[in-house]
Amino acid sequence: MKSLQKTKHIKRIKIPALALFCMILSSLFFTACSPQSATVTPGISGNVIVTNTNSSSVVEVDTVTTDTVFNIKLPIKPTQVILSPSGIKAYVISSTSNKVYMINTLGQSIAGYFKLPGDPLDFVISPADNFLNAYVILANTNKVAVVNLLTNHISGTFYAGSDPTSIAISKSGLLGFITDYKSNELNVVDLINYRTKFFISVGEEPISVAITPNGGTAMVVCQGSNSVYPLNLNTFKLEPSIFVGQSPNNIIVDNYISKAYVSRSNQNQVTPIDLIKNVALIPIVTSGIVQDIAVSKNGYNLFVAQTDPNQLTVIPVYLQSDAFSVKLNFNPTSVMPLS
Prior knowledge:
Elements: H1 2-9, H2 17-33, E1 47-52, E2 57-62, E3 68-73, E4 80-83, E5 89-93, E6 99-104, E7 109-115, E8 120-125, E9 133-138, E10 143-148, E11 153-159, E12 164-169, E13 175-180, E14 185-190, E15 195-201, E16 206-211, E17 217-222, E18 227-232, E19 237-238, E20 242-243, E21 248-254, E22 259-264, E23 269-274, E24 279-280, E25 284-285, E26 289-295, E27 301-307, E28 311-316, E29 324-327, E30 334-337
Antiparallel strand pairs: 1-2, 1-30, 2-3, 4-5, 5-6, 6-7, 8-9, 9-10, 10-11, 12-13, 13-14, 14-15, 16-17, 17-18, 18-19, 18-20, 21-22, 22-23, 23-24, 23-25, 26-27, 27-28, 28-29
């Protein structure tokens, strides 16, 4: 009310027309460009899919409202969800079944399934050829299956190593990197001919691998060495290892803020890695035991599925604001953001 009274008071002051026009234009410009007027998205990307292995279902959770959007029962016990690049389809695998179920995320329904020549251990979609192919490590077979995602048919298999645990694909789609747990090696595969190019000795018990956002490094998690080994993909030489804490078991990369995150078996911590300096940062401590980690597509949020208690914690890593948790009435085994 005071501002209105002031406006009435100064109404008698004569302002030249040109000056008045400039003032109005200037006001409009600064209002539009001012940071205060911009809508700042806090990075809470909303919905994620969480696997409920014990109940044979996948659950979509809205992390903003904490509501359950859907709960789809499956004939398998799901252990991992892989989202297609379009976000319209999700692939659900189980370590105890050779069937891969497809979920229509828009229709919130099962879209079908296809069979693999073995039970899947890890499933990745190649970034090349318009995301045409998926590569699936088959448990207890020492092989990787190549799946054409247009036809959902197996187009071939190739040798993966004595004890393959994880696979990552180069940005070009030409090379595959497979961790071999027993041999302490990384198997580098030519994906044109499906043949091993060479094996690279890394630390003890390599269990997970991821490619950095610039495509220049493969980050190899070695559980027995409690470290991550960066492999330069230009020289194929190892760089100094990064200690990340006891029993690391998984690594994911954030494509927007040049960080990686490493989870650890039976621990309540996630260790961030600065991918520019290749150094570990202060661990993120959670209230529960970490089961799985994932990062949103926009790089704003880190999602941590936990047990004891059963919950999903959202950590706004981009804005570095306070984390919050969504309580769950089941044991979450994996998490995948929808955006």
